[in-house]
Amino acid sequence: MKVIETKQYQELSQLASNYISDKIKKKPNLTLGLATGGTPKKTYELLIEDHKNNGTSYNSVTTFNLDEYIGLDPENANSYHHYMNQTFFNHIDINRKNIFIPNGLALKMEQECREYEEKIKFQGGIDLQLLGIGANGHIGFNEPGTPFLSTTHVIELAPSTREANARFFDSIHDVPTHAITMGIASIIASKEILLLVSGEDKNAALKRLLTEEEPTEDFPASILKKHPHVTIIADKKALKGIGVMH
Ligand SMILES: N[C@@H]1[C@@H](O)[C@H](O)[C@@H](COP(=O)(O)O)O[C@@H]1O
Predict the structure, then answer these.
(1) Residue 241 in domain
(2) Which pTM value belongs to this model?
(3) Which end is more exposed in the chain, N or C (fewer Cβ atoms within 10 Å of the end residue's Cβ)?
(4) Which structural domain, as residue segments, surrounds residue 110?
């Protein structure tokens, strides 16, 4: 895993945006895995700026999002469909038919999960997966204990995840209890992974990721150690007290 340290969140976002936009320039029909949450917000903002100022085109790009809450309508302000439209898709020239986000309202969830995996495979796999990390080490919504061999599935959210994400909702009672998420095996099948880590809240998780030895299902992000092409961009606060080789 290659670690790039930045001074703060702004610089982290700028590097991440440059990284992604360079990939698209090199491969205009890139298949991009996307993440939600607070961390990548600024990256999306800068990618939009880059699209407007430099003409980076998403016309041939295909995207797959990591996850979605179960039971939230795409119009719901807290759904990841809504987040992605508002934060990114509405502002770039992506072809709507090339956008894939798990359907949290599917009547047959098992079928939805299976078909999501098939769509990724049909597309030839994900070239670059953008990732964040939960304070408990979750990636996507794969909570501690999720099997490394998991593919897209429905998961019960950990109480700490619901608490952390309650900041986006009116009350913690409104945070869905379940989500549909790409599995750990689906994430790790991506050809390349870009993990963004910002702020002191993530310091302990990042420390565990960078220092502990063997991957363990108790700490989902630890699987990244087994992936041959992972780049971590982290700011000083996230890296506080962690010795990183430069
Ligand atoms: N499901 C998302 C993850 O995809 C995200 O990476 C993580 C961190 O979120 P944040 O960037 O807001 O800290 O938790 C959320 O629950």
Answers:
(1) no
(2) 0.97
(3) C
(4) 2-235
